[in-house]
Amino acid sequence: MKAVVQDNYGSTEMLEIREIDKPTIGDKDVLIRVRAAGVNPADWAIMSGLPYIARPVYGLRRPAQGVRGTDVAGVVETVGAGVTRFGPGGEIFGWAKGSFAEYASAKEDALELKPANVTFEQAATVPMAGMVALQAVRDHGRVQAGQKVLINGASGGIGTFAVQIAKWLGAEVTGVCSSRNVDMVRSIGADHVINYTREDFTQSGERYDFILDNVANHSLSSLRRALTPTGTLVPNAGRFDNRWFAGGGRVIAANILSRFISQTLRPFLVSQNHADLVVLKELIESGKVTPVVGRAYPLSEVPQAMGVVGDGHARGKVAITV
Q: pLDDT digit string (tens) for 5-38?
């Protein structure tokens, strides 16, 4: 099968299309004929081996998993003897090992039936970004009907999901984005849209019950000025200027500061779980959430797709069509 493989950490030049063997599967595994894959900042980070502190997880000297990609949508090829929820021919989405390939393997509980009303490309963009947005807004922000919510980076992968999830929960949502994305962010449900090239929301005097920051272009103190006295901030972005720790210092500062103020600063790591994958599927099928695919690339152009995501200016989600 064809797959995008890397032997060493580095830039997109490390990614090569190769013919390799199909994955083998165990009793609780599913072999997927990949139709599409989603591209996430995490894929770029693993490709780059950043931050260095994460290399014990990625692989100390080179990537332990040679094929990039985790988010997947496709058709079940075969299943292990212990798999009970899927059979050959079923259309699924979720997380897999090495989804930038013609075939990938996944645990049964990492998959769910694909939402019937979206394409494979749309479904493939949901698992990581959708779950981060869901857990940030619903669980860590505890957003409720009538609250004022601001999503910084509303036009990106996580941001487009977060705007829609906050609206589902009944919030009054403000999205922050660039000029070219104002209409798109409004079209997915934002009540108000701030063009950051013309206005700094931290200086406007408006106060929000919850802020999800996907960009890290403001200091924590500036973001706090835009919160209500008891508001919650989830700082969900970290730059790689510091190649050792990336946004780790920001996370530590947020955790320490939160102990001494009335506001809540709550960074978190996403928890990949089947229950939330089901919630996202139901939201999509009910029309409350629609995945926004800014662009889809063929498997041969994975390096270009990874470069776009790494630059941090992708519109919606980037998908790979296989």
A: 999 999 999 999 999 999 999 999 999 999 999 9
CATH number at residue 296: 3.90.180.10
Helices (H), the chain: 41-48, 55-58, 120-124, 127-134, 157-168, 182-187, 220-225, 248-258, 274-285, 302-311
Q: How many residues does the chain have?
A: 322
Residues 75 and 173 in one domain: no
- Domain identity same for 67 and 182: no
Sequential DSSP letters for 93-162: EEE-B--SBSEEEEEGGGEEEPPTTS-HHHHHTSHHHHHHHHIIIIIIS---TT-EEEEETTTBHHHHHH
Contact (Cβ atoms closer than 8 angstroms) between residue 41 and residue 236: no
The answer to whether residues 117 and 171 belong to one domain is no
As for how many domains the chain has, the answer is 2
pLDDT tens digits, one per residue of 206-230: 999 999 999 989 999 999 999 999 9
Instruction: Record the pTM.
Output: 0.93
Are residues 139 and 108 part of one domain?
no
